UniProtKB/TrEMBL annotation:
Gene Ontology molecular function terms on file: 4-hydroxyphenylpyruvate dioxygenase activity
Keyword Translocase in record: no
Lineage: Bacteria, Pseudomonadati, Acidobacteriota, Terriglobia, Terriglobales
Keywords recorded for this protein, A-Z: Dioxygenase, Iron, Metal-binding, Oxidoreductase, Repeat
Family recorded in the similarity comment: Belongs to the 4HPPD family.
UniProt cross-references to CDD domains, sorted A to Z: HPPD_C_like, HPPD_N_like
PANTHER family: 4-HYDROXYPHENYLPYRUVATE DIOXYGENASE
Domain of life per record: Bacteria
Gene3D superfamilies, A to Z: 2,3-Dihydroxybiphenyl 1,2-Dioxygenase, domain 1
Name assigned to this protein: 4-hydroxyphenylpyruvate dioxygenase
Species for this entry: Chloracidobacterium validum
EC number: 1.13.11.27
Amino acid sequence: MSAPKEAPQPPTPLAVVDFDHVEFYVGNAKQAAHFYRTAFDFDIVAYRGPETGVRDCVSYALQHGTICLVLTGALTADHPIAEHVRRHGDGVHAVAFRTPDAAADFAKAVERGASARRTPEELTDVHGTVQIAEIAAYGDTIHRFVSREHYTGPFLPGFEPRLIKANQTGFLHRIDHVVANVGWNEMETWVKFYEDIFGFFQFRHFDEKDISTAYTALRSKVMASPSLAIKLPINEPAEGKKRSQIEEYVDFYGSPGVQHIAIATPDIIQAVSRLRANGVELQRVPESYYDTVTERVGAIEEDLAALRDLNILIDRDDQGYLLQIFTKPLQDRPTVFFEIIQRKGSESFGKGNFKALFEAIESDQSARGTL
C-alpha cells in the first residue's frame, strides 16, 4: 500500500515588503499633478521630461506621507502611453512593490509562470542606484519590483528634484490596499496568480450574500503578503437584476484594472475635512445610516455628529473598528477612485457598510444611465 501523498507546499513568498509607488498614465501629466497637489495635498517632488533628456513622455512624482504617485503622459500621438490613455482614460499602469532584491523576485516570478515586461536593470545617478524589473498583471496593469536601499534621491534616477509644496500635508499616511476589478469568472484566476507567483495568501473573502443590493452584486477575495503590509482585493461581478459597478468599470476602462486605492490616515476627521475644503467630491450615504449605526458597531472614540456631518462610515470586527469614506471617480470615466480609511484595530474592509456604499454608487450609475 503506497503512502498517502503530501499536500503541495505553498511557494515561498517573494521578498516584497510594501507598496513603493503607483504610476498613472494620464492625458495631461502637468494638469494631473496640479490636481493631486491642490485636491489631495501631495507635494510634487521630482520631474522627468524633455528638460532632463526624455523626449517622448513626461512624469511627475508626488509624495504625501509614505504614499508616492507617479503621473506620466505621452508627448507624441503614437506613443504606447497615448494608446493606453485612448483605451482606458487616465488610469493605473503600474502597482510597484519595494523589495530588497528586484532581480531575485523577478526571476522567481517568471520561473513560476509570470510574463516578463521589463527584465532587471540598474538605474544610476549621483544619488545612487535603483534596481527595477516588471511583470504583467491583470488587463494592461503591470507589477514593478523596486530595490532602492542604495538610493537617496527624490524618486528614481532620471528624475530631477522639483519640489512644489502643497498647502498642507501630513493627514494622509500610507497605501492601505489596492483593489482590482476583473471580468466575469476571472477572480479565481488572479487569486491563483497571487498565490502561485507571489506566495500571498487569501486574507478575506466576500460573496454576493455580503456585497449586494436590491439590484447588483459582486464577489471579492483579498490577497495579502505574509506581513499584511500589501493587501490586494480582487473583485468580479455576480448575478444581479442590473449591471454592477464592476461591469460598468470594465466597460468604461476597456479591460480589468485598478478600481481604487485605499489610503490610510491617522485622523480621518481632519483628512476628510481637508479634502472637502479642497473641493474633492465624496460619496454620500443616506442620513438614515447614522440612526442605527452605533447599535451595530458599539462605542467609538470619535464624535458621531462629526462623522455624520462628514458622511464617514463606521464598521467593526473582532479586532476593533474602522472609519472609511470613498471619493467619486477622479476622472471623467467612472473608473478609478480613492478610499480614505482609518483603522482603530480592525483589519477588515467595512463589510457592514457595503450595502449603503453600493446603493450610493448605484445612484451615481443611475444618473449616468449605466445601471
